[in-house]
Write the structure tokens for this entry.
Amino acid sequence: MGQIVSYARKGAIGFITVDNPPVNALSIGVRKGIVDCLAEGAADTEAKALVLICAGRTFIAGADITEFNKPLEDPDLNAVIAALEDCPKPVIAAIHGTALGGGLETALGCHYRCAAPSAQVGLPEVKLGIIPGAGGTQRLPRIAGVQAALEIITSGDPIPAAKAHALGIVDEIIDEKLEGAQAFAEKVVAEGRPLRRIRDLDDKVAEARDNAAIFDEARKAVAKSKRGFEAPQHGINAIEAAVNLPFDLGLEREREIFGEALFSTQSFAQRHIFFAERQVSKIPDIPKDQSTLPIRSAAVIGAGTMGGGIAMNFANAGIPVILIDSTQELVNKGLGVIKKNYAGTVAKGKLTQEKMDHRMGLIAPALSFDAIKDVDIVVEAVFEEMDIKREVFKKLDAICKPEAILATNTSTLDVNEIAAVTKRPEKVIGLHFFSPANVMKLLEIVRAEKTSKETLATALALAKTIKKVGVVVGVCDGFVGNRMVHGYVREAMFLLEEGALPQLVDKALYDFGFPMGPLQMSDLAGLDVGWRIRKRQAATRPKDERYAEIGDLLCEQGRYGQKTLSGFYKYEPGNRNPIPDPEVEAMCIAESARKGITRRAISDEEIVKRCVYPLINEGARILEEGIALRASDIDIIYIYGYGFPVFRGGPMFYADSVGVESVYNDICAFHKEHGKLWEPAPLLERMAKEGKTFTMG
């Protein structure tokens, strides 16, 4: 490998080229290299202008994540940007791929910027619980205006080159990377353009000085759209400093806010999730060069809500998929729902009609299993009953080509038992999608006893292809997510018996950061789903174990949740907003009386602990049993599958942030008060007594 940053001249233009694969991250070597090459270019008497450009597939895509949580070596990025601004010759950033975070801040330190049409720019720091820390909050409003800066910094989302050009962030859209950049640099020289430093611009921030409402409105909007997150509010404060303070003082204020955010629990939580997501695909016994099977065609058995959503994932990735059900009516109904989902996305402007038509064309309906004999993978999404699934797998095994992977979408059942009815158990795997399957990012990949490494590696690769976060889990009742959620919902039910009402339980968990509470979530999923599982588990439930019947009583009355317009709440047709129901309140009070429980006022703090701590306790058992590989895998499952607040880092990180010993002591108190369902997990007890943590090293 040559120099990370090199200088060479072409005609009258000097090129500073960063070559730090894979994404030209701003490592110490890159930072030093840019400063050194700037000096070389400034001293080159033949060079009339300098272009900062990157080799490979992208411009500087951000900070070097390997340097996170390490002491920063000089020069820091602010020093690099100051060197760019102070260069006596025009410096032009030539952007292709992405210029994100520190990459965009570096580009904003240049005098001019040009970009390829496909390029994207952005400041995504908010997604790590921090704000831009090298002048991004000070320079962006000066070049793009305050409103645009607020939107870009508080969302963290990248914007395309065309929009960046319209906002003034990019001065020119170029065709070819090197040639286009050279032509633009030559134009800057020929026109005698001045050394334009963004830090010296004032007109766009001056407009906002007499408009305090712009910041009030931004704070209200962010409080709603980024509920519970601190970093977007920090970003607004920093942009406000850009408007009201001289540049250097604004830069100091940005650094203060950056430091405050960097050492916050929220930032530690969000950075934990950032790294945890990159860790999930690393399976200790699966080598990097493990062979995988090509997935060029797929089939889904069952055209219901789940099956249709799964089929959409394949179509979205350009993989032809056959959708099978037992009758033409069911297949047509499934296709109708898929079409309606796509049409909704088109109506929102997030998909073109042409792409919708292409994707619909990739989904082929069928009634006979004979239609799928040549596909590479089949995902079964039929009724959650073992006998039905075993029957389907016997048929699939007989019809599908020998190398085809047979996957089950079961959410709780024993994948080993399903695999046992086939002659290819090594090709059987669980792919547990979460509803709605075309939206939810999580995919629990259930590794059965005989699942081969090749099958597992193929499933992990497929997860990436269909844009899912695939987390490998072992076989047990409910795997990781649903096994843990049992205690979360169970305690919500017990709280109803003890004195709370559905809306009070749900509000406490909503205020904690969940998108909805456990009872509203149950209504959304369908109460009959949990009822069916509880009936299956009834035979093995100990007679002396506490059990809340409220969920069963609702189902016996045909109250299955949103789909029947009544569950724990009432619903208006076409409206998902829950309405408290006096009938359910009366049912809760009657159940308390029947069981001899004196109802009491229950605090939000107790509600949160009673519902969240079972997740931690069961998570510890799952880790000890090896059902999950890492505590961080559990956190990813809960963030992406169950709406656990990202800024709290998942249940296992949350335990660490509260203090494992503190959580253990509370669980011991609940155990004493509420009985054996609260028995502390042995791993949790050991960690509390040894002062250890789940995720913090």
About this structure: The CA atoms of residues 342 and 513 lie 29 Å apart. The chain has three domains: 5-262, 298-473, 481-690. Residues 604-625 form the longest helix (22 residues). The chain has 29 helices and 19 strands.
